[in-house]
Specification:
There is one protein chain. By secondary structure, the chain is mostly helical. Helix content is 71%, strand content 3%. The chain is built from 16 helices and six strands. It has a three-stranded parallel β-sheet with strand order 5-1-6. Strands 2-4-3 form a three-stranded parallel β-sheet. The longest helix has 43 residues, at 252-294.
């Protein structure tokens, strides 16, 4: 296996070193050229994707940094004993990419994806190779917990296959949320959406017990139409900034500054979200033409990063409401040692909530509040591994005491992190964890395939509506 790991590093390391934005620009351009899109159009789409990724990353960084300062003030003011520092996703990506096994897992998943396409088990070509780190960190955590490379690889492939299957299941919902037709090629295999099965359980409970709550539901666009700017994205940002600033005991000038930062970020998220759609238009047309002439009607989907949904106001409205809820839960939750800082804007949580509930904001907030403890516990249990690995690869963030532990509050895939922990401990021969590993894997698998059945029912309704409207 060492030879395979070395081969993967030789193939992918020079490409990965370009960075996510450059990497995805090149991939999208080459893909469009493969589908006989004119070079200038292919390059335009690739550059737009790189710009969109850079823009969304910059805005998330601005927002997280601003709120991290306020949360730090809150800790100093209250004397809370939450000893693990939330450093956000970027340092974790750096740490994960510092391992040679990440490129090995990437090579394995590229092969698996191509096999699934050839066998017609999926219609999704996953090009979001930078985000393989979300899957790789699961394998790395399993190894750290006691598993060997073979067991970790089996776990990564198992979850990776489910992620690809899920991308096909979500595609009609993405079309609905974006107001796009079936020719839209965008989907995603992001780890974000592996929370869908659990969210759907609670969504079905809502259907059975609380359907009357839906009549009180709203989204930012409808609220804005009814009451003007009071319900707009920037107004929601201002409310949150004022609330968090007051909680942190900041000065009036600091509160106003935080409020304006939140407001402008929420407005820009919507704008940048539209850039993703523009970026894939050339590729979309190329795929449509290719499928019509060569694939006898078979459609191909392109697996991108999740921010093509960033224009949906519900993502940000729910994240803003969940921010203070997460802060409160972190204080009172037994077993949690992680204070929300860089992850206070819950991007690891809200996109999946949007897809399952289809934008029902009350459901998004309630279900999000219920599932947030999973993220906090997952981040807490991973802190020793993340801290140790960061030290080894020289990626421990500056400005943090060397004795401190680091993690991430809303790291995508909390359930998968627990699976890795249980499986690693079981592989090391710990009897109790053998039972936990087997039981959790069985439940995880059954839950996913129940969810798959429910999504197929939803997709059939979409198909019938599409046929009727033709």
């Amino acid at each position: 296996m060492n030879a395979i790991v070395d081969l993967a590093n030789q193939i992918f390391q020079p490409i990965i070193n370009l960075g996510a934005a450059s990497l995805m620009s090149i991939i999208l351009t080459i893909l469009a050229l493969c589908f006989k899109v004119k070079f200038s159009k292919a390059l335009e789409g690739g550059l737009k994707l790189g710009i969109a990724l850079t823009g969304i990353g910059a805005i998330i960084n601005i927002l997280s940094t601003a709120f991290s300062g306020a949360m730090t003030d809150f800790v100093a003011r209250t004397g809370l004993e939450l000893t693990i520092t939330d450093v956000g996703w970027a340092p974790l990506a750096t740490i994960t990419w510092g391992s040679p096994f990440t490129l090995y897992f990437l090579l394995v998943m590229v092969i698996i994806n191509l096999i699934m396409l050839a066998m017609k088990k999926t219609n999704t070509l996953d090009v979001d190779i930078f985000d393989i780190w979300h899957l790789s960190i699961v394998g790395l955590f399993a190894i750290w917990s006691g598993a060997n490379l073979f067991i970790a690889t089996v776990l990564v492939v198992f979850i990776g296959v489910l992620k690809i299957l899920n991308s096909d299941l979500m595609k009609p919902t993405f079309n609905d949320l974006l107001g796009a037709g079936p020719e839209n090629p965008m989907t995603t295999t992001h780890m974000n959406f592996m929370m869908n099965p659990i969210i759907m359980v609670f969504d079905k409970i809502f259907d059975l017990l609380f359907p009357w709550l839906d009549k009180y539901d709203f989204d930012a666009a409808r609220l804005n139409a009814k009451i003007g700017f009071w319900g707009s994205k920037f107004a929601i940002g201002i409310y949150l900034g004022i609330f968090v600033g007051l909680l942190a005991g900041q000065t009036p000038s600091e509160i106003v500054s935080l409020a304006f930062v939140a407001a402008v970020c929420l407005e820009l998220f919507s704008l940048i979200g539209s850039w993703f759609i523009a970026a894939v238009e050339p590729l979309s047309q190329g795929i449509t033409d290719f499928a019509s002439s060569r694939l006898a009607g078979r459609t191909l989907n392109i697996g991108l990063d999740w921010p093509f949904l960033a224009g949906r106001a519900e993502i940000w409205a729910a994240a803003n409401v969940l921010a203070p809820i997460m802060l409160l839960e972190s204080i009172i939750l037994p077993g949690n040692k992680l204070l929300p800082l860089a992850g206070i804007i819950a991007m690891g949580v809200t996109p999946a909530l949007l897809v399952v509930t289809r934008g029902k904001l009350i459901r998004m907030i309630v279900i999000g509040a219920i599932e947030l403890p999973l993220f906090l516990w997952s981040g807490t249990i991973m802190a020793p591994f993340i801290t140790e690995t960061a030290m080894k690869v020289g990626a421990f963030p500056e400005g943090i005491e060397a004795s401190a532990m680091i993690s991430h509050t809303t790291m995508e895939g909390p359930i998968e992190k627990f699976l890795a922990f249980f499986l690693g401990k079981a592989a090391a021969g710990e009897g109790t964890f053998m039972i936990l590993a087997i039981g959790s894997l069985v439940v995880y698998t059954l839950l996913f395939f129940w969810y798959r059945g429910e999504m197929k029912k939803r997709n059939q309704v979409y198909l019938e509506a599409e046929t009727t409207n033709r």
